Amino acid sequence: MKLNERGLLIVISGPSGVGKGTVRRALFEMKNHNLVYSVSVTTRPPRAGEVDGKDYYFVDRNTFLQEIKEDKFLEYAEFVGNFYGTPKDKVDEALDSGKEVVLEIEVEGALQVREKMKEAVFIFLVPPSKKALYERLRARGTEDPEIVEKRFKKAEKEFSLAYKYDYIVVNDDVNNAADKIMAIIRAEHARTQRTIHKYTKMLEE
Q1: pTM for the whole structure
Q2: Is 21 annotated in some ligand binding site?
Q3: Is 54 among the domain residues?
Q4: Is residue 136's pLDDT more than 60?
């Protein structure tokens, strides 16, 4: 018997370059899960290998601004000259169907979601060290050195916001980090505040 019919919203966030996408993919490769990935909308150009509708919905700036006016985003943020946003209608639809919805978003966006959906589970993914993060950003090789420096400086500020999250997971090993996140999801399903209402009703039957 399921004590909570609605799915969980899991927000995986952290500084740019920490490996959010890599950990998220490892999480989805695990067996016997009920996870769905919430694809974000962005105005940035696709990187090599990224697929529209799978990695992101790629739109132009005017389209994104119009969707802001129409209140279509659960959260959105502008980062290094590009917009990123989460389409809220698709998130609600998946949660209502009992799916676990995973958001992989930047820190600014995660804090917006925290204000709107307090029942969500917020996980702050961090590197084993600042040096490791800087090396990861440089190793990407997809951005100019100036952009890399901007991302690193922004990341240094974001580290201080970890206290706003429910959990901190160190990405020292991708599979290990994914295992920890899956354990968090399973534990959250048994949290009393999520299940007590259904459990009480069950006792009355």
Answers
A1: 0.79
A2: yes
A3: no
A4: yes
